[in-house]
Amino acid sequence: MGLTEKEAAQRLKTEGGNVLGDKKKTGAVRIFIGQFKDVMVMILLGATVISVLLGEVSDAVTIILIVLLNAVLGFIQEFRTEHTLETLRSMTAPTAKCYRDGELREIEAARLVTEDVIELEAGDRVPADCVILSCAGFFCDEAILTGESEAVAKRAGLATDTDNSLNKPNIVYCGTSAVRGTCRARVIATGRRTQMGRISDLLADIDKEMTPLQKRLAELGKVVAVICLVVCAAVFAAGVLRGEDVFDMLMTGITIAIAAIPEGLPATVTIALALAVSRMLKQKALVNKLHSVETLGCTSVICSDKTGTITENKMTVTELATVGSTYYFSGMGYRRSGEVTRGEENIAVNPLAEKALSEALRCGVLCSDAAISGGKASSRRRGALSGRGDWEVTGDPTEAAILVAAAKAGLTKTALEADNPRLREYPFDSETRFMAVHVGGRSGRRAYFKGAEEVILPRCTQYMSDSGELLPLSFAVRSEISRRVTEMSDRALRVLALACCDCESFDPDRGGLVFLGLTGMLDPPREEAKNAIRKCAAASVRTVMITGDHKNTAVAVAKKAGLLKGGMAVTGAELNLMSDEELDRNIGKYTVFARVEPIHKLRIVRSFKRRGEIVTMTGDGVNDAPAVKEADVGVAMGVTGTDVTKQAADVILLDDNLATLVNAVEQGRCVYANIRKFVRYLLSCNIGEVLTMFGGIVMGMPIVLLPAQILLVNLVTDGLPAIALGLEPPEKDIMSRPPRRSTEGFFSGGLMWKIVFRGIFIGLSTLASFSLVMRMGGSLKAGRTAALVTLIMSQLIHVFECKSERKSVFGVDLLSNVKLLLAVAVSMAALAAAVLVPQLRAVFDTVMLTRNELLTALGLSAAVPVLSGLFGAVFRPRERN
Predict the structure, then answer these.
(1) Helix (H, G, I), strand (E, B) or coil at 25
(2) Which end of the chain, N or C, is more open, meaning fewer C-beta atoms within 10 Å of its C-beta?
(3) Inter-residue contact 409 to 358 (CB < 8 Å)
(4) Across the chain, what does the average pLDDT equal?
């Protein structure tokens, strides 16, 4: 049996080892150096060198710290992704029980080759893709490959079968786990030829692109670079034309150009993202990669897994049909509250008084190996159970669902087994498709059967009426039962038939059973998921379901979740018949993708991206990892997700809840809006500062502000106010707007013109203040002090204008951000100290202003926002809050 060691060694040379593909890793040093390739970073490094040459060591140290902080964060995120494939390889079995030279030996799994024969038992991890030669009650957990949590029943098939496609009952797959029974199998694929190996190759071939924010910041860096060069050249030329010393004007131009660089921008962006990460963590979303926070805000398509994300991942008995009646069970999942009603009229009943119902539930409880616990319910009323929390469940989810339904009717496993001890058991088998138990009790011995209707019903000769009477099972009744099964299956309910018989001896193959009823169960959609889907629709974000489940089941769940409004369903087999071009044309029609494999998920994500969509993909199993990594934002499940998927993901949902993801999308939109706000603020202020200095030179004025005064301006305006602006709460209508287009530039919506014009007005106001105070008879120091007050106060007023891109300073809620109020107060206090405290006046070369001089400076500071606000209030339509 199996191969000889010599044959195996020859095959090993030809086929290679049973290991997953290994992509050449990027070294840590190369990853770290790569963080300095950004245009903005290069500008900041250049500014550092020049600052040192000019003697501004403190500025140089500040900039270096900012650059290093960003580089370290980027390095940590990128280095972390290098371990995804290593985690995947760790999921393969280290050893295998294999026949060599006719003996069963334990060998390294890496030495397995095709045609090797192996043995598997419960608890083993499958070391390679194999065809089953023989098995006994063998079940495998294939969740890491298929995403479906229920163990899969396996059976022997053709020994010559070498097709290792997914979802085949006679094939076991590398990396999956044996959960029940024993199995003998022959290896048909090893290493990269296994399903796990193919996923490994898909992961290795995916390179992460820059996020939308990174692209926009790169765009911003280029704009800043151009501005710096233009300012430097303009100042240099103006000074030389006036006859100034060439070297002095070159250094002056460089100094002013450095002032134009918003060196606080990278730090402010990082802080805004980091604080958003902290807020998201409180909402159960763990962010692995900082920039993905903003990308979430761009999301236009959410590709969601079904099980556990849209649904509860808790099977629930929703109805039980006897021959005479249909009973409905309220309460989803494993919740202890629920009610039993009869018929479409929802008439409340006492379940224990309904003979056929109570006997069917007894059958389901006694013919079960699952268990539920969690204490007693707080109260029982007729037909209902009320209590707090969920039952704790162990065992098969289908059996547990029946136990929960029985508990709602007042029947517990502990009490029933005490009165009806189990004598013998015939366990569920994938080929016979039923389970049976023989129990004893005061009223005699009885056998209970539970299984597929097409297996149980042919064994039945009678049925129990609602009154408890046993009646013959006629052809008409059989037809009606079969019709009910079809009708329930069409609604994606999982149907089990229940039957019993009185018997002293146990024979699992016996006939003459009494039909009791049909249970219909469903993995119900989460209520939060329904609300989240509605919220996404209002925000113009498409939600699509991608699942390995049957098409009918997926469609039924999608309807209940509110997903299938106007959309269509398509299967993986149908996707195989489409070219990429055909898929791109039609993908907008589909809302549900069923019976899909890992390669299908990857195709779906890529198709949406080719159409210009920003795609967020959720997943939990290894089969989801390639698509999760390919998506603009990959989201892993924190509870059910595998380590591989978590490593590949940008965000981890700690509660596996779609609603949490939608909250994260809202945070992403808020972060991007806030980044635009403080970019607008910083650039407007910097343009105002540059124009003040440049305009003074061009107009032949004395130097308007001294270096120490410019340093004070940057200190009190570029730091705390900008950071506080990044903490603005989301605007009320942020989730009723459509997502940004992937091609939309950072300065879209007229933002650049707002920045330039406001910067010009800040500069002109400052120059006017300087000039007017000088003309009023003030000294040069008084003029500079007035200019300093005007420049700082106009920026601190402008920070409130930046709270909204669509409202004036009179239209925004000035008190909505307490941190911004505190930051402005601190900055105003610093300015006041620089003018009022004698020691600081000496440092910053300021003087006390007269009342008229102060009013002139403050009036010019407020003139532009007041005038623009009044103009907006008069001529623009009132916007809703």
Answers:
(1) coil
(2) C
(3) yes
(4) 82
The token pair at 234 is 């303009």
CB atoms closer than 10 angstroms to residue 33:
12
- Of 179, 87, 75, 175, the C-alpha closest to 125 is 175
Q: Which amino acid is at 384?
A: A
The helix (H) or strand (E) run that includes residue 768 is helix 751-775
Q: What is the pTM of this model?
A: 0.69
CA–CA gap between residue 836 and residue 834 (Å, rounded) = 6
Residue for token pair 């099964």: 485
**pLDDT tens-digit readout, 215-255:** 666 666 667 667 767 777 777 787 777 776 776 666 666 66
> What residues are paired with 347 via a beta bridge?
342
Contact 94, 109 (CB under 8 A): yes
The total number of residues written for the chain in this structure: 881
Residue 294: pLDDT band with limits 50, 70, 90:
confident
Q: Is the dihedral of CA 483, 484, 488, 491 positive or negative?
A: positive
pLDDT for the residue numbered 90: 55
Q: Are strands 542-546 and 590-594 parallel, antiparallel or unpaired?
A: parallel
d(CA 360, CA 516): 5
Q: What is the pLDDT of residues 477-487, one digit of tens each?
A: 999 999 999 88
Which residue shows structure tokens 């169960």?
521
Q: Which residues contact 415 (CB under 8 A, 6 or more apart)?
A: none
End-to-end CA distance of the chain: 78
Please classify residue 353 by burial: count the beta carbons closer than 10 Å to its beta carbon, then call 0-12 exposed, 13-18 middle and 19+ buried.
exposed
Of 107-111, 250-254, 394-398, 877-881, the range with the lowest mean pLDDT is 877-881
pLDDT of residue 426: 87
Q: CA 177, CA 127: separation in Å to the nearest integer?
A: 9
DSSP characters over 698-731: HTTPPPSS-HHHHHHHHHHHSSHHHHHHTTPPPP
CB 628 within 8 A of CB 291: no
Q: Locate tokens 């707002």: which residue?
A: 754
Region for 851 from its dihedrals, namely left if φ exceeds 0, alpha if ψ lies in -120 to 50, beta otherwise: alpha
- Mean local confidence (pLDDT), 19-27: 61
The answer to whether residues 377 and 385 touch, using CB atoms and an 8 Å cutoff, is yes
Phi–psi pair at 166, nearest 5 degrees: -70, 160
How much is the pLDDT for 376? 44
Give the confidence band of 34 by pLDDT, cuts at 50, 70, 90. low
What is the identity of the amino acid at 724? Answer: A
Structure tokens at 558: 């999608």
Neighbours of 848 (CB within 10 A): 12
- Mark out the alpha helices in 242-347 (DSSP H runs): 246-260, 264-282, 292-298
List active site positions. Answer: 305
Burial class (CB within 10 angstroms; exposed 0-12, middle 13-18, buried 19+) of 675: buried
Q: How far apart are CA 491 and CA 494, in angstroms?
A: 9
Closest CA to 141 of 642, 573, 657, 649: 642
The DSSP secondary structure of 190-225, one letter per residue, reads -GGGSHHHHHHHHHHT--PPPPHHHHHHHHHHHHHH
